[in-house]
Amino acid sequence: MKVSFKTQMPKTGEIDRKWFVADAADQTLGRFATRVATILSGKNKAYFAPHVDCGDFVVIVNAEKIRVTGKKTKTKEYIRNTMYPGGQRAVSFEMLIRTKPERVLYHAIHGMLPKTKLGRQMIKKLKIYAGDKHPHANHNPEPLK
C-alpha cells in the first residue's frame, strides 16, 4: 500500500495578511528588530515558504524611545558612501536617533531581510513612526507582544 503525502505550498492570493502594531518604547534594538523581521518574512506562520512573501504588515510606534545596550549610544555609527572620491560619510547613533529615529529601526530590520526582490516586497510592509500616533487605525492592527 502506497501512502502519498503532498506538501502544501502557499499561493500569493491565498495568504491572509494581518496588521500588527508594535511599541518600540524601552525595547532593545536588535531583539526588537529580529521579532519584527520574523513577522515581515512570515516565518511565524505554519505555512511559511521561503520563495513566497507570506508575511504580515507591521506598524512601529515610539521609534524615538528605542534603546541600545552598553556604549553603543556613543560608539555605533551608520556609514554610507556618496560614490565620489572621499565620499564616505558616518553618522553616529546618537545623532540619528535625535534627527531621524525611524532610520535606526529601518536599517536594523532591513539588514535582517533577504537582499532580493522578495526582501524589497517584505520591507514595504513595514511602517515606522517616531511618535505614538499612526494613520493605520482603519486596518485594526493587533498589538504585538
Low-confidence stretches: none
> What share of the residues lie within helices?
25-40%
Q: Measured on Cα atoms, how large is the radius of gyration? A: 18 Å
- Count of helical regions: 5
Main sheet attributes: strand count, strand direction, barrel closure: 4 strands, parallel
Q: Structural class of the helix and strand makeup? A: alpha/beta
CATH class: Alpha Beta
Domains (count)? 1
Number of strands: 6
Shape: globular
The second-level CATH architecture is Alpha-Beta Complex
Give an overview in words.
It contains 5 helices and 6 strands; from the N terminus they run βαβαββαααββ. The chain has one domain: Ribosomal Protein L13p, Chain: A, CATH 3.90.1180.10. The chain has 145 residues and is an alpha/beta fold. Strands 5-2-1-6 form a 4-stranded parallel sheet, with helices on one face. The protein has a two-stranded antiparallel ribbon with strand order 3-4. The protein starts with 18 loop residues before the first strand and ends with a strand. The model has no long low-confidence stretch (mean pLDDT 94). It has helices at residues 29-41, 72-75, 93-99, 101-110, 117-123; strands at 19-23, 57-61, 77-81, 88-92, 126-128, 142-143. α1 links the parallel β1 (19-23) and β2.
